[in-house]
Amino acid sequence: MPRILLVEDNEMNRDMLSRRLQRRGYEVIIAVDGQEGLAMAQSESPDLILMDMSLPLIDGWEATRTLKGAVETKDIPVIALTAHAMSTDRDKALEAGCDDYDTKPIDLSRLLGKIEALIPRQNETASGGGTSS
Amino acid sequence: MNQVPFVDDIETYAQDIVDTVREPLLMLDTNLRVQSANRAFYETFHVSAAETENQLIYQLGNGQWDIPDLRTLLEDVIPTSSVFNDYELEHTFPIIGRRVMLLNGRKLRAGSHSAIIVVAMEDVTERRQAEADFRAIETYAQDIVDTVREPLLILDTTLRVQSGNRAFYHTFRVSPEETENRLIYELGNGQWDIPALRTLLEDIVPKSSVFNDFELVHDFPGVGRRVMLLNARKLQAGHHGALLVLAMEDVTERRRVEEAVAKAKEASEMANRTKSLFLANMSHELRTPLNAIVGYSEMLQEEAIDRELDSFSADLEKITLSGKQLLALINDILDLSKIEAGKMELYLETFDLNALIDEVAATLGPMVENNSNKLRIERATNLGGMRADQVKVRQALYNLLSNAAKFTHDGSITLNAEREMMDDVEWIVFRVTDTGIGLSPDKIVRLFQDFTQADASTTRKFGGTGLGLALTRRFCQMMGGDVTVSSTPDKGSTFTIKLPAVVRDVKAELTGDIADDDGDSTHVVAGLDRSTDPVPEPSTCVLVIDDDPLQRDLMRRFLSKEGYCVRCAGSGEEGLRLALELLPIAITLDVMMPDMDGWAVLKALKNSAVLREVPVIMLTMVDDPARGHTLGAADYVTKPVNRRRLSTILKRYSCSTADCPILLVDDDSMIRASLRKLLEKEGCRVTEAENGEVGLASMETQRPSLIFLDLIMPVMDGFEFAQRVRRHPDWRTIPIVVVTAAELTSAERHRLNGYVENIIHKEGHSKDKLLRQVRAALDNNAVPRIFAA
């Protein structure tokens, strides 16, 4: 089961996204700020990281830069989640080394498409999402 | 003793003296008969001795001396006193005209002669005239002074008041008597004894003959606090000697208004910032709970579908849809507020139109089907891409199509997209045609207004915020285009969006995008990759931007002598303004300037479509190679290197084929390793070098097709490496991609694509050498001269 690290400080967003991803067959582990996110990326070796950008302690850009600069974590794909569809946020995310980005509110099917593009599932049938947006 | 000849001698002697005197003299006996006159008398009054001697004075010259005043003098004054002085006689003589004479008289007894009266006549006609003229001039000057509405004081060199003007007396409520001949500091009980004024009058005035706009703030007991601008001139005023004219302009009210304006401006800016902040916060605060509502209802809906709770699922879908509608509304309102506040910005990128249209069509699919409509898409085969704000183009298209879907039932909706040439500009034209309810002319008029649907009842019937079309129009206009409509009621409507194929960001060009410059990013500047934008009619001037007036002057004189027309700006801001105004043929730009330095100016210049082609010659004294050199770099990437960016670059330089030889010059082995991995994944053959020297050596054996170059390295840094590569005849065409640790925003990236023509280091150069380099740089850029030097 692919393991996704969700780094998100908003409790409801965390709860919602983690439950919806679990429903789609992902194992979801949670970090509530950038610092915890970095620690868990090291210790838990997730297959993919969903990174909120405005995080307490260490923000998402900084955390991604750190991840991408470290040998052990630099190959883990990171999808940036930005609060609003600001092109500058998007660019900042990509410049920080994020592999992709998506905007909140989450359009689940779109996000699933992006996740699957980065960690293709071998033995499972493509689950409900598709990339219809 | 023979006395007679002696007396005769004396008389002759006296007559000689008398004749020598230049004033006319008359000698009368006590009967007022002329004894004799002197030569001056005869000459002055054009008479002969024969006509004169032994005549009664009143009979002389046909009675012209019969003057009442003279009679008074001779008949009343003389008998009672032996002398009179400066008796002024004004009389018009028939031949010689009007004369003013001062008469001086003596009664003498001369030896054996009886008493004689000597009348000396001093002709003061001209002196009196000059005096009268002078008085008239003084009156005239005083009249002028009094007419001036500014208070004036005229002081002598001891700072004593000679006079004031009416405005002075009026303004300070004093009389001339209280003022004249007093020391200025004593005026009005010492209210003018102001330290700043003392400084001015005692320190500044003695050293210079003029001062302007010396600002004096003082609380005057009589008239209250005043702000005055003092202007003074030292004058040499004839017999008055040196005078100081002190003019006082009362600017109290002006200053008060200026302060009020500044305060109001600050307050409004503050309010505007508050509003922006409020909007940003609102945006976040409104969206967060809505996201939760939408998210949880979607989640429950998925759950309901899984558990086959169909009735729940339908209701949950309504909640989701309503939540999404509310979100869209909030976004629309925020967008409109942003536009109103001038905060809406364009993010220009180049994108593929077919992909955009497919995406919009897919999103709208369900909505089109809801009303049993058919969506047809017609696109020109040459549609290709456009440069615009993709998000806004998408939203504009989406708005038009969703409106069409909303107001059409069992009909068809057609999206037509093509390129059109108009006025030598390429446009992208989208037409959205429906077979819906259509619009009457009066409804069309109100269509694009904020919060207006064609009909208030429409809102109830069809939903929607009424903001979509208003926003669509604003977006199109921001991008230099517009949206128009033609419609027939009950037949349908066609909405047409026209946008330039290459949109320009006018706002960013004007502001130069200065505000977001954090000042510490690395700027790689280069001389390649110039865009092919059309250059407007150029002016003929070289613009010199330098904060140092000496440098500016030097440059102006030098360039003028060289035959260039020169304009100067003392600051970056002024420089940008002038540049836009003049469209100069070249710009010399000082790097070190306060407020806005040369780099910020350069960025703004290169970010402007109209100015980016203007050759810029940087004059620098800072030894800052990371910013300064002309690199001839083709592109750059930032660390950590983004895979997609890398792949784009490889494609751009035709290195996406297998075995493409690539040289990687970086002293950081980690970076080299990770970049190598990425490049090898793309099929490239990578050679590594840990510094420029090693890099050059490796190039002797293997000529790379593309070079990735770090700038800061030991032994030989990237700048020197790049220079050497550029000098080598076989290597100079190899594209160099700079690898920089600096974070650059996407917008900055556009600006960095290399525009600086040359960089000249001021340090260590003689003035002449510097100027020669400037001239060479201008020549290299074929900047035309106005005349042959």
Task: Explain what the structure shows.
The complex is a heterodimer of chains A (133) and B (789). By secondary structure, chain A is an alpha/beta fold. Chain A has helices spanning 11-23, 34-44, 60-69, 87-95, 108-118; strands at residues 3-7, 27-31, 48-52, 78-82, 100-103. The longest helix of chain A has 13 residues, at 11-23. Mean pLDDT of chain A is 82; it is low at 123-133. With 789 residues, chain B is α/β, with parallel strands linked by helices. Chain B is 43% helix and 23% strand. Chain B contains 28 helices and 27 strands. In chain B, the strands form six sheets. Chain B has a five-stranded antiparallel sheet with strand order 2-1-5-4-3, with helices on both faces. Chain B has a five-stranded antiparallel sheet with strand order 7-6-10-9-8, with helices on both faces. In chain B, strands 12-14-15-17-16 form a five-stranded mixed sheet, with helices on one face. In chain B, helix 11 packs antiparallel against helix 12, helix 13 runs parallel beside helix 14 (390-406) and helix 14 (390-406) runs antiparallel to helix 17 (468-478). Chain A binds chain B through residues 10, 12-13, 16-17, 19-20, 23, 65, 68-69, 71, 74, 83-85, 87-88, 91-92, 94-97, 99, 104-106, 108, 132-133, and chain B through 283-284, 287-288, 290-292, 294-296, 298-299, 302, 327, 347, 349, 359, 362-363, 391, 638, 640, 642-645, 670, 674, 743-747.
